[in-house]
Structures are given as C-alpha cells and as structure tokens.
Amino acid sequence: MKSIWTFEDVNLFGMLCPHKFKEYKKTHSLNSYKKEDFIYFEKDSANKVYLIENGKVKIGHYTEEGDEVVKAILSKGELFGEKAILGEESRNEFAMSIDNKTSICPVGIETMHNLMRDNRTLSFKVYKLIGFRIRKLERRLELIMFKDAETRVSEFLKELADEYGYCCPNTGDTIIKHPYTQKDIAHLIGTSRPTFNSIMNKLKELGQIDFSRNEIRLKISA
Questions:
Q1: CA end-to-end span of the chain, whole Å?
Q2: What does the pLDDT look like over 112-167, one tens digit per residue?
Q3: DSSP state of 83
Q4: Same domain membership, residue 118 and residue 152
Q5: Are residues 35 and 54 located together in one domain of the fold?
Q6: Which GO terms describe its cellular component (predicted)?
C-alpha cells in the first residue's frame, strides 16, 4: 500500500527543488507560511509549481455562493500547482497553509520544464502524478454529489488504506497512519465534522474500526 501522491521511493524535494542545485542555490530561497496564509489565490498567475518541505497545504476553491470546496490536503514531499506544467496561465483554485510551520519550495515553470526535459523518467512520473490526481479528484467529486455521508466515509477509508496503510503482522488488521485531522477529512468528503465523528464512532461500535488522532485500524473481522 503506497501513496500515489509521491513518486514511489523518489525524494521529490531533493530532485526538484532548485535550493538543492549549485547553479540555482545562490538565487533561490524557501518560503515560510503560517496557518491560514495563502500561497496563491484563484486568478493568480500560474508561473510556478510548489514542493512542500514541511507542513500541510489545502487546495480548494470557492463557489459563487462563497462556500469553500476542499479539493486536496497535501503534506511533506508533495507537489502542487502542477497544472502550470500543462500550460495553465491563471489559477482556478487557491492554496493555503494549514500548519503553523509550512515551508514551501517554489519552482519557476521554466526551471521545471528544464528539469523534466533533462530527465525523461522524471518527466513521465510528473505526468503520471497529474493523471492520478485528476482521476482521484473526479472520483471524490462523484462521491460528494451522488453518495450519502456513510458511503463517502467508507470509500475514503479505503483510499487512506491504499495510500497510507500497512498490514499488522500479528492481527492482519490494516493500520493507517495518516496526516489528516478530523476537520481535514470532513472537508475532503464534503460533510461536517460532527457528522464524520458520528459515523466513525458508529463503525467503532460495530467493531469495524478503531481510531486515534492520526491512526485508523481497519479490523480484519469487518
């Protein structure tokens, strides 16, 4: 069970951040953000991609009614703003730090294209990542639009198991160590935090799961 958001065992930050390269290092710096600081807004120029050195970043947009729709919550080692690689000229989403110590490596789109041109394997993996992310977002929006809250929770637990889970050798249970808060997950599946908590507690009472702050156990007996 391995995350589709990272390049298998490849260190994205080490491979792509200009701060790591002698020819860029002197003129490059990392950007720091506190909780609720925006990294970019909707309609901003899409002239960079970003790598997360530390912290967490929320990607989303606002509806015409002003409601926030969360598309993804990303953490250390992950890439965002990647649609600029495909030629996007202005952002159709916002990116916000949701951690008090978020550190971001910005990569100019020209630099990114140079890195990809010089490394075909890296280029393939970047495009593969973009494809995965698009399909994942489509699946999540489909669930929000057509499925009830309990189904959305169940499907998200399966998604977490695929990305962060491993099998406990003693019990056969699936252990999920994930980076999300309950509020994060509620936003991602389009429900309220109390509703999410209620469903999780119900699953726990049924003996299907157990959970703590950043760990969920899917019981094999379920």
A1: 19
A2: 898 888 888 878 888 888 888 888 888 888 888 899 999 999 999 999 998 889 99
A3: G
A4: no
A5: yes
A6: cytosol
